[in-house]
Amino acid sequence: MNENIILSNEFSGLWTGRSPVRIVSLVPSLTEIFYYFGLDKYVVGVTRFCEHPEVKFPKPAKIGGTKNPSFDKIKKLNPDVIFASKEENNLADIERLSTICPVIVTDIVTIDDNLKVLEHLGIMFQKKKAASAVIKQLSSDFKKVIFADLKTAVYLIWKDPMMTVGGDTFINNMMLYAGFENLYFDATRYPEITMDKLIQDNPEYLLLSSEPYPFKEKHVEEFERILPATKVILVDGQMFSWYGIRPLFTKKYFSSIL
User: Fold this and answer.
1) CA–CA distance, 219 with 212 (Å, rounded to integer)
2) What is the DSSP letter of 69?
3) What is the DSSP string of 138-200?
4) CA dihedral 180, 213, 113, 22 (to 10 degrees)
């Protein structure tokens, strides 16, 4: 692998003992962590989807989306490190950006993966106390959960074509904690499904995510007509798909769904 592309489980020793660096974040979940850890003045560039927290001043530069970051804008920011995600960013973009500076790539599929990345960030940016507090709370909220009486469910992230989530995604892991058994656990990534397939599988619940496709109440009504035996609900996509510190808020949200 390109030596300037660093996997998330290998980066904890970088810059340890030095002042924080100029950070560009291509991942909304990670941007939220940096601000939570008090590193906001070092964040020089973020995507247009990095909406938490609401930043008033100084605002970091917007460098495009997660799938189409602007190479030229990022290069002008002269970053020391770029944070990306296997889940959200394209390999071609990551490889090109690695010619500017090191790119750290996270690969978070489970809560345990999330805890490890939080730990490494705490070490890397000398924020062990803040990281330990989050890790302690998340461990309390998630580590002792017993998965029982799960309701079968399908989670849709897109409408045309219909796309769901497989078992190798963070959303799948969060579905378990919310009380749902993903009917497409055996699939990988984000497979397309047909309406006939959905009708045939007849889930107890159909979860329509608020992102990336913005499902609305009209879509609930549409699916209710097609799947009369299925409970169709709108869900907050950030609560299911954002890692980092976002899971601190999911326990209460999940308890309100079922």
Assistant:
1) 15
2) B
3) HHHHHTT----SPEEEEEESBTTTTB---TTSHHHHHHHHHTEEETTTTS-SS-B--HHHHHH
4) -160
**Tens of each residue's pLDDT in the chain, 258 residues:** 577 888 766 665 565 556 668 999 999 999 999 999 999 889 999 998 888 776 655 678 899 888 889 999 999 999 999 999 988 889 999 999 999 999 999 999 999 999 999 999 998 888 999 999 999 999 999 987 777 789 999 999 999 999 999 999 999 999 999 999 999 999 999 999 999 999 999 999 999 999 999 999 999 999 999 999 999 999 999 999 999 999 999 989 998 887
> Quick one: how many helices (H) and strands (E) in the chain?
10, 10
CA distance 110 to 120: 16
SS3 labels along 94-154: HHHHCCCCCEEEECCCCHHHHHHHHHHHHHHCCCHHHHHHHHHHHHHHHCCCCCCCCEEEE
Say whether 76 sits in a helix, a strand or coil: helix
Is residue 112 within 8 Å of residue 81, measured between CB atoms?
no
Q: How far apart are CA 139 and CA 251, in angstroms?
A: 12
**Sequence-distant contacts of 216-225: CB under 8 A, at least 24 apart:** 219/159
Distances (CA, A) of 241 to 55, 111, 166, 250: 21, 11, 13, 10
CA-CA distance, 18 to 96, in Å (whole number)? 26
By residue count, the chain amounts to: 258
Considering the entire predicted model, what is its pTM? 0.89
Cα-flanking dihedrals φ and ψ of residue 41, to 5°? -70, -10
Residue 157 corresponds to which tokens in the numbers above? 């992230």
